[in-house]
Amino acid sequence: MGLLSLAIWTPIVFGVVLLALGRDEQARAVRWVALIGALVSFLVTLPLYVQFDRTTAAMQFVENAPWIERFNVNYHLGVDGISFWFVLLTAFINVIVVIAGWEVITRRVNQYMGAFLILSGLMIGVFCALDGLLFYVFFEATLIPMYLIIGIWGGPNKIYAAFKFFLYTLMGSLLMLVALIFLYVQSGGSFDLAVWHALPLGSTAQTLLFFAFFAAFAVKVPMWPVHTWLPDVHVEAPTGGSAVLAAIMLKLGAYGFLRFSLPIAPDAAHEWAWLMIALSLIAVVYVGLVAMVQQDMKKLVAYSSVAHMGFVTLGFFIFNDLGVSGGLVQMIAHGFVSAAMFLSIGVLYDRVHSREIASYGGVVNTMPKFAAFALLFSMANCGLPGTAGFVGEWMVILGAVKFNFWIGFAAASALIFGAAYTLWMFKRVYLGPVTNKHVKSLVDINAREFTMLALLAAATLYMGVYPKPFTDVMDVSVAQLLQHVALSKLN
Amino acid sequence: MIDKLSWITVYPEIILMVMACVIAIFDLGVKTPKRGATYALTLVTLAVVAVIQGMYASSGATYYGFGNMVVSDSMGNWLKCFATVAVMVTLVYGRPYAASRDMLRGGELFTLSLFALLGMFVMISGNNFLVIYMGLELLTLSSYALVALRRDNAVATEAAMKYFVLGAMASGFLLYGMSMMYGATGSLDVNAVFQAISSGQIRHQVLVFGLVFIVSGLAFKLGVVPFHMWIPDVYQGAPTVVTLMVGGAPKLAAFAIVMRLLVEGMLPLAFDWQQMLMVLAIASLFIGNLAAIAQTNVKRMLAFSTISQMGFVLLGLMSGAVNGNVLSAANAYSSSMFYVITYVLTTLASFGVILLLSREGFESEDIADFAGLNQRSPLYAGVMAACMFSLAGIPPMVGFYAKLSVLQALIASGQVLQLGVAVFAVLMSLIGAFYYLRLVKVMYFDEPKISTAIQAPSDVRVTLCLNGALVLGLGLFPSGLMALCAKSVLQMLGT
Question: How many helices (H) and strands (E) does chain B have?
Answer without folding.
Answer: 20, 2
